[in-house]
């Protein structure tokens, strides 16, 4: 496969190969691509994903084409397709896209010949975040088999939840959700538990950001009410198992999903996730841009 659009496209071998390459990079292996150019087309705000792709490209010797929807011909009505076709014509070797539309990439696949990396599509998927989360979990436990993972929060609007739940179950983890009724996604085949049950039983608590920008109206809950019922409070953190860890894709709504002082508590791996993100994205860019490079995909 020459694109990374959905985590569902990767075989177990494909996932393992990215995690192994990323770990070798973290352990000191150097990689260099050189003479390649990547275009970053971010139509939604980002700090981590965009900057870690920039850092990954920098470390691999890849040049970057900058883009901002506010100062580009998007302002004149240029379509996503025409923008991607343009960066391809200009000479980009790969395009990394974040876009608010679910599965935006369906309109590109037929006529775009350079690799496309999905850096987040609406409420759809976030495959590179998923891969860095998988690496963080694997570093801790050395396996995914029977690891109890609870993904907690705004499940309905979360692309992180969808990619991670699918991949973790495929890799043998025991995946459950925890969410207020209004943000449950009952189309997905996972059981729900309360936050109190979650913290007592899980090995990995993956908190999600409350995605206010994707909510139609004002929330019926205050931040304090959300934290008390569905967030990680000091009391809940104390109830977690000794070796269980805490993840959050960030950005974090401090005092909503989590009490602020817990963001850097001993069991938090939140900033480790970000560090892992650079190595994972280096591994992905390296695999896609090598001569004849491709990712291992599920058999159709
Ligand atoms: N986790 C994540 O996707 O963060 P950004 O929105 O800052 O890229």
Model description:
- The protein has 300 residues and is an alpha/beta fold.
- It has two domains: 7-125 and 277-289, 3-Layer(aba) Sandwich (Rossmann fold); 127-273, Rossmann fold (3-Layer(aba) Sandwich).
- The chain has nine helices and eight strands.
- The protein has helices spanning 12-26, 48-60, 80-90, 127-141, 159-170, 195-201, 223-230, 234-239, 270-289; strands spanning 37-42, 63-65, 94-99, 116-121, 148-152, 174-178, 204-207, 245-247.
- Strands 2-1-3-4 form a four-stranded parallel beta sheet, with helices on both faces. Strands 6-5-7-8 form a four-stranded parallel beta sheet, sandwiched between helices.
- Strand 1 (37-42), helix 2 (48-60) and strand 2 (63-65) form a beta-alpha-beta unit.
- Helix 1 (12-26) crosses helix 9 (270-289) and helix 4 (127-141) crosses helix 9 (270-289).
- The longest helix is centred in the C-terminal third of the chain and has 20 residues, at 270-289.
- 44% of the residues are buried.
